[in-house]
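Q: Predict the assembly, please.
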Amino acid sequence: MPHPRSPSQAGPPALPEGEQTVTSTPPGYRSGFVALIGRPNVGKSTLLNQLVGHKVAITSPVAQTTRNRLRGILTRPTAQLVLLDTPGIHKPHHLLGERLVKVARSTIGEVDVVLLLMDGSTPPGQGDAYITQLLRHCAAPLVVGLNKQDLVPPRRAAQLQRSYRGLVGDCPFFGFSALHGDGCEQLVEGLSQRLPEGPHLYPPHAVSDQPERLLLAEQIREQVLHLTREEVPHSVAVRIEDVREERHCTRIAAVVLVERSSQKGILIGKGGAMLKAIGTAARLQMQTLIAGPVHLELFVKVSPHWRRHPGRLAELGYGNG
Ligand code: GDP
Ligand code: MG
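A: Predicted assembly structure:
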């Protein structure tokens, strides 16, 4: 199973290649898959990172940041939860949007529990009604999570909860703050109770089963979004060209694909300053994932309309259907 090497301070050292882990689980142990479903920006990636305790999903104030299904693995004394972070469900705008919605919909059919995450700091809106409608066809037990409770003044909490309960009916409810962690353990407990009995699905110290390359690419894309904000919106993709272990560092070459040459200019910046800032920030994050020094070579390439070419989407890992 490909998974990133854990940072050196976390978990037991990696086993030599080919060696098997045999883990025994106590009677009554539970394990299974949990889909995180919710509108863009409700905090799915933040929750995944909070629960897993590692940075496995990228977060951003820009909607629709998450393009790939990302698994976080959460191993507790009584249960192992495999979390799937899905792109926010929304009405499709163009081909990329349709793909994202397809991935999110197919995730719902394959899991043991669906966690419907909502922004509990504002009243439910049309988007929440749309998702609830979609989940009526879902066989897996539904748990509702009201996130961002840290933003809710106590006098409004009960009223907000009532309006959400009215929307989703009679299913378990948890309020928490994915950002600060308050209430998250109760949520994990609630989800665990609804998983079937079973052994570990992944080694207990694993945090993610995403190929390392994809995580590296996501770390660069996160920095592009953070540092350029609205100037270079969603028309950016990152392709890792080469990862090479050298004596003193890991050498990584990556290409940032944009749709227009004006965007290339913004990404490179005056005298290369923007690209340098993106590269430095991404490299620092990569060093945590890789647990060692990284040398990053970053290039920018114009690839007009990459979002509308099915072949190019598949090549970048956004599905092939
Ligand atoms: P996703 O699109 O559902 O994956 O949402 P993200 O996890 O990327 O979060 C979107 C934005 O909401 C980010 O700016 C987060 O920092 C913020 N956010 C997420 N959870 C919380 C929370 O519990 N409290 C507050 N105040 N902000 C949050
Ligand atoms: Mg996300």
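The longest helix spans residues 273-290. The longest strand covers residues 236-245.
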